[in-house]
Design goal:
Blueprint: E1 10-15, H1 17-22, E2 23-33, H2 37-44, E3 48-49, E4 54-58, E5 61-65, E6 68-69, E7 85-88, H3 91-102, E8 107-116, E9 119-129, H4 132-154
Antiparallel strand pairs: 1-8, 2-7, 2-9, 3-6, 4-5, 4-8, 5-7, 8-9
Length: 162
């Protein structure tokens, strides 16, 4: 799979590749993140991981859990590597996420983390979990696409992973 390029005006930090495989992604929201200085420094260095990250709503505020931002070595007043981080969203967006999580049985997962105009942003997607047979179908589609690309480039058939 080709590496995703950052959109114009964005500096991509991390991507959750498992999210599109494990979930059917629906509505997407762009949210700011409340960070400490040491967290921003580590994000600029690219030391973040979005695997297993999700969003919750508590008392009308959205929080991001499971994002791993590496701790700064030698920092006296550092940060927790996997602490909860407050998200900056409009009230209606928070309500939409809360209703989808509560009533519709969906979850909110972080899909991308990036800098935009100097501010750290995260893309949140409302998602519904895939079943095993859906995941198998996704793998079949990826293999077919990979084979078609190989035929187009090399003019020959490509036989599996290896």
């Amino acid at each position: 799979m080709a590496k995703e390029k950052a959109r114009p005006g964005e500096d991509l930090i991390a991507r959750n590749k498992r999210a599109s495989f494990d979930y059917d992604l629906h509505d997407r929201f762009e949210a700011g993140i409340v960070l400490k200085g040491s967290e921003v420094k580590m994000l600029r260095a690219g030391k973040a991981d979005l695997t297993d990250s999700f969003c919750t709503v508590l008392r009308g505020e959205a929080f991001l859990h499971g994002v791993s931002i590496a701790a700064m070595a030698g920092a006296a007043f550092g940060h927790l590597p996997k602490g909860a981080r407050k998200l900056l969203l409009h009230r209606r967006e928070i309500e939409r996420i809360d209703v989808s999580i509560g009533r519709e049985g969906m979850t909110a997962v972080a899909t991308r983390l990036y800098f935009k105009s100097g501010f750290a942003k995260v893309e949140i997607a409302l998602a519904r979990g895939k079943k095993i047979h859906d995941k198998r179908e996704t793998i079949r589609a990826q293999d077919a696409e990979r084979e078609a690309r190989a035929v187009a480039v090399h003019g020959q058939r490509w036989y599996g992973r290896g």
